[in-house]
């Protein structure tokens, strides 16, 4: 651990200067775009189609490599076409994709929507390939008058004739889908260890008229800290639950739902909580528009029975609580961004002064060229902590958040902004010095 | 299949034969879509063809007009080829919503030599006034609170990037602070504060389809690791056994770095230092695959001080996500490190709170983490119904 010998420092500095000089030289040179590359195109058509791809689920690096007949830009303001992609989960456990092509500039008013689905076990490669194919089919008409058109074509592989391949396929499962999932994660070093284990099972049947979701799960977490001098702290949190939800579609805007659950949680001091409720929900927009906008009002009334692990602050080991709740919820995903807000009021019917009012809102908005911001804010007024343990918690239980603590409020907010400027083009992929998967 | 009524006096049956993914019908009222084709000679001597698409029924209101210009010198066959291609472009978006959709695709013929980057639309664009530089400013904040505890996290960043096939330049500055408060008992509150910041740069020059050379240079600070100020410069070379242009599917890279760092510590270290200079070298091999059956990645890193070879670290990392057969997929990841390079650790002992809240790096000879999971789905997996009622 001596000082670095002077010759090595000098060599490194020289190398650094050499690299910087080469870089500066390269930047001074003409941009790598090849002017007049549109040789062969008979007419001087409009420049390549500029796409603003607005998609959380897409593998953009793959698309930039696989779909190269368009140019990708950073901002909607300079694009010819805004491609807005949303996904929703399907009854089979896969994803239903909606790809909205929104025409801008010379395509103003020329909007199209394509949809497709990917299965629950599709790999990331299968999902990105299928998205890429549908994306190209939607783009090709918009690209028809750009210089690349002569090199484009639409191809059709005739489906192979499968014997007895009729359009109606009998479904022996009657639309039931089952899924089981198990996971374990562990980490550790000399003085601490962590382990977390989960097991889940679910069954669901989703049709336009009925939705049935059943699920059961259990989780176990363990932390061990060696404080030195033979003092070891071990913390355990565990919980399990069985849930059922049955929803009947009444009309395009009304639904009737019933929920039931049995659960326990060391954090919440419940040895067994049994709850049942029934309710109605109204969507001010038709449910079929839910991928773009929804505004729902839900009212539920129910009964809960609790058996506690330890005596509560109200000296109870068991109690039954009738309760009701009302929720208003808004969700918008529009070309300018997305907005969500929800407010729930939950009240005990045997003690009207025990209630909880929770409100949250979030927005992710493109304000002007290059500038976007997001904000999330949530606040709860809490007057219903009937399950709190009676004794004082130890410092370890507080620091490691092992038990629910008394509070009459809880808040959580985050915000951020991002401003970009400079070159609008983002089509180039350069994976060098990126590590595994960049 | 989409039923198309083609209104075209000058078209021959050969044109219809070039489109196999729609069904041509004889009357407009049997169709989902009508296409009217007209042509005229324009003053410049070319022949302009106009294809007007007009949707009906499920496609009502969806219209589009495509225009192409064909030199008058073109043969009938050449004209037909151009018109037929444009007809297919216009029909694709309607056929993508018919039973033919799964069998359709779009091809793009690029003149691309082996191992070269594909030449696409990017090559046809004009000059970029910013010469590929993109600048970004960002800031974020996050707060949580209730009666007995609260926390706050703030960060800010600024970056300038330039990405071309030949060069990759990343310049970035970052700063974050986090703090928390715990009401341990009625009259005792524990407060913690952490922070770090960095200014770093990466410059990479492409040297053919397999080789790259570059360096990272950075000035960083981290309270977690007792590092008040660390200044580093690390030249490196990288080789990808596959061409870099295949990186979305597969890559296998070998990277070798020789660098030097100057450390200044916040507190005196286990080795009684408050500052020191350490040259080092690093060898890293990384593998990544993303294929139809799933994806996998792995890397192995060897880090060693050149002035004190006994300070070293070896680490292995791997992840895999694979569909074994219909309905069953497994995923797992793990990493393991043998650690002999914690020369920067603070000499004084950590308090109980520092250990429980992970506020300080603790001496260790190894570090590992593992995740493993599987999912098995069965039943009516192709059910595409979306039902958003009552959430979930």
Task: Describe the fold and architecture.
The complex is a heterodimer of chains A (438) and B (392). By secondary structure, chain A is mostly beta strands. Chain A has two domains: 50-151; 176-419, Porin (Beta Barrel), CATH 2.40.160. Chain A is 12% helix and 49% strand. In chain A, the strands form two sheets. Chain A has a twelve-stranded antiparallel sheet with strand order 7-8-9-10-11-12-13-14-15-16-17-18, with no helix packed on it. Chain A is globular and about 80 Å long. Chain B is mostly beta strands and 392 residues long. Chain B contains three helices and 18 strands. Chain B has helices at 13-17, 76-95, 352-356; strands spanning 2-7, 22-24, 33-41, 46-55, 63-71, 104-108, 133-146, 149-163, 167-185, 188-207, 211-222, 227-240, 250-265, 275-291, 294-305, 312-325, 328-340, 366-379. Chain B is elongated. The chains are: A mainly beta (438), B mainly beta (392). Chains A and B meet through α1, α2, β5, α3 and β6 of A and β5, α2, β6, β7 and β8 of B. β18 of chain A pairs antiparallel with β7 (133-146) of chain B, so a sheet runs across the interface.
Which structural class is indicated by helix and strand composition of chain B?
Answer: mainly beta
CATH C-level label of the largest domain in chain A: Mainly Beta
Strand percentage of chain A lies at over 45%
Please trace the helix and strand order of chain B, writing H or E for each element.
EHEEEEHEEEEEEEEEEEEHE
CATH topology of the largest domain in chain A: Porin
Determine the fraction of residues in helical runs of chain B and give it as a percent range: under 10%
Distance between the termini of chain B: 35 Å
- Tally of DSSP helical segments of chain B: 3
The rounded Rg of chain A comes to: 29 Å
Strand arrangement in the largest pleated sheet of chain B? 7-8-9-10-11-12-13-14-15-16-17-18
| Main beta-sheet annotation of chain B | 12 strands, antiparallel
Mean pLDDT score of chain A, rounded? 86
Are there runs of chain B of 5+ residues with pLDDT below 50, and where? Answer: 113-118
Shape of chain A: globular
Strand order of the largest sheet of chain A: 7-8-9-10-11-12-13-14-15-16-17-18
Structural class of chain A, by secondary structure, is mainly beta
Give the rounded overall mean pLDDT of chain B: 90
Strand content of chain B: over 45%
Q: Count every helix of chain A, treating DSSP H or I runs of 4 or more residues as helices.
A: 4
State the shape of chain B: elongated
Proportion in helices of chain A: 10-25%
């Amino acid at each position: 651990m001596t000082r670095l010998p002077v010759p090595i420092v000098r060599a490194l500095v020289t190398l650094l200067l050499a690299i910087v000089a080469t870089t500066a030289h390269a930047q001074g040179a003409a941009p790598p775009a090849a002017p007049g590359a549109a040789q062969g195109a008979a007419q001087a058509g409009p420049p390549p189609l500029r796409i603003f791809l607005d998609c959380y689920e897409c593998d953009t690096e793959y698309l930039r490599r696989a779909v190269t007949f368009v140019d990708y830009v950073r901002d909607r303001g300079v694009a010819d076409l805004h491609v807005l992609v949303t996904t929703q989960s399907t009854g089979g456990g896969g994803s239903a994709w909606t790809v909205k092509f929104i025409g801008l500039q010379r395509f103003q008013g020329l909007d199209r929507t394509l949809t497709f689905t990917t299965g629950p076990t599709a790999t990331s490669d299968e999902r990105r390939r299928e998205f890429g194919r549908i994306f190209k089919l939607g783009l090709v008409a918009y690209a028809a008058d750009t210089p690349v058109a002569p090199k484009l074509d639409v191809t059709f592989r005739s489906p192979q004739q499968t014997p007895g391949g009729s359009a109606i396929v009998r479904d022996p499962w009657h639309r039931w889908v089952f899924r089981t999932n198990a996971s374990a994660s562990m980490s550790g070093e000399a003085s601490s260890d962590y382990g977390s284990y989960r097991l889940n099972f679910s069954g669901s049947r989703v049709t336009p008229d009925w939705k049935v979701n059943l699920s059961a799960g259990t989780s176990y977490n363990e932390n061990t800290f060696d404080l030195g001098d033979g003092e070891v702290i071990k913390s355990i949190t565990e919980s399990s639950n069985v849930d059922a939800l049955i929803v009947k579609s009444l009309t395009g805007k009304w639904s009737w739902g019933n929920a039931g659950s049995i659960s326990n949680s060391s954090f919440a001091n419940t040895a067994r909580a049994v709850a049942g409720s029934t309710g109605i929900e109204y969507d001010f927009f038709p449910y079929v528009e839910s991928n773009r906008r929804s505004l729902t009002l839900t009212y539920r009334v129910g009964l809960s029975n609790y058996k506690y692990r330890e005596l509560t602050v109200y000296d109870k080991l068991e109690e039954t609580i009738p309760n009701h709740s009302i929720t208003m919820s808004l969700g918008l995903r529009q070309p300018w961004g997305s907005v969500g807000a929800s407010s729930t009021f939950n009240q005990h019917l045997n003690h009207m002064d025990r209630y909880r009012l929770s409100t949250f809102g979030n927005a992710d908005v493109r304000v002007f060229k290059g500038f976007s911001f997001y904000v999330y804010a949530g606040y709860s007024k809490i007057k219903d902590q009937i399950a709190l343990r009676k004794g004082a918690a130890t410092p370890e239980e507080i620091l490691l958040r092992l038990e629910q603590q008394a509070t009459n409020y809880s808040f959580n907010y985050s915000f951020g902004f991002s401003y970009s400027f400079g070159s609008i083009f983002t089509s180039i992929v350069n994976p060098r010095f990126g590590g595994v998967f960049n | 299949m989409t039923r198309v009524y083609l209104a075209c006096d000058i078209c021959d049956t050969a044109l219809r034969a070039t489109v196999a993914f729609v069904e041509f019908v004889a009357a407009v009222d049997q169709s989902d879509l009508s296409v009217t084709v007209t042509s005229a000679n324009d003053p410049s001597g070319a022949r302009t063809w106009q294809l007007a698409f007009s949707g009906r029924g499920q496609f009502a209101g969806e219209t589009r007009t495509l225009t192409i210009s064909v030199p008058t010198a073109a043969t009938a066959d050449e004209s037909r080829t151009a018109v037929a291609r444009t007809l297919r472009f216009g029909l694709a978006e309607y056929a993508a919503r018919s039973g033919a959709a799964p069998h359709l695709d779009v091809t793009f013929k690029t003149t691309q030599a082996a191992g070269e980057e594909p030449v696409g639309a990017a090559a046809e664009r004009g000059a970029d006034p910013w010469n590929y530089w993109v600048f970004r400013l960002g800031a974020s904040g996050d707060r949580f609170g209730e009666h007995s505890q609260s926390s706050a996290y703030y960060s800010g960043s600024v970056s300038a990037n330039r990405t071309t096939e030949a060069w990759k330049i990343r310049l970035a500055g970052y700063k974050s602070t986090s703090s928390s408060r715990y009401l341990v008992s009625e009259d005792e509150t524990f407060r913690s504060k952490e922070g770090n910041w960095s200014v770093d740069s990466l410059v990479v020059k492409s040297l053919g389809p397999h080789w790259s050379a570059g360096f990272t240079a950075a000035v960083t600070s981290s309270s977690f690791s007792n590092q008040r100020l660390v200044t580093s410069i690390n030249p490196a070379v990288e080789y990808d056994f596959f061409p870099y242009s295949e990186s979305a599917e597969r890559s296998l890279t070998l990277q070798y770095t020789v660098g030097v760092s100057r450390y200044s510590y916040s507190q005196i270290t286990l080795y009684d230092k408050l500052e020191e200079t350490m040259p080092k070298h690093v060898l890293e091999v990384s593998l990544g695959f993303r294929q139809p059956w799933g994806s996998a990645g792995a890397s192995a890193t060897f880090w060693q001080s050149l002035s004190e070879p006994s300070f070293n670290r070896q680490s292995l990392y791997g992840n895999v996500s694979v569909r074994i057969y219909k309905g069953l997929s497994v995923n797992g990841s793990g990493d393991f490190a043998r650690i002999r390079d914690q020369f920067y650790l603070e000499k004084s002992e950590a308090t109980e709170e520092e250990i429980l809240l992970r506020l300080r790096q603790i001496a260790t000879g190894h570090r590992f983490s593992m995740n493993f999971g599987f999912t098995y789905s069965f039943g009516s997996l192709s059910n595409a119904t979306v039902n958003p009622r009552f959430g979930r």
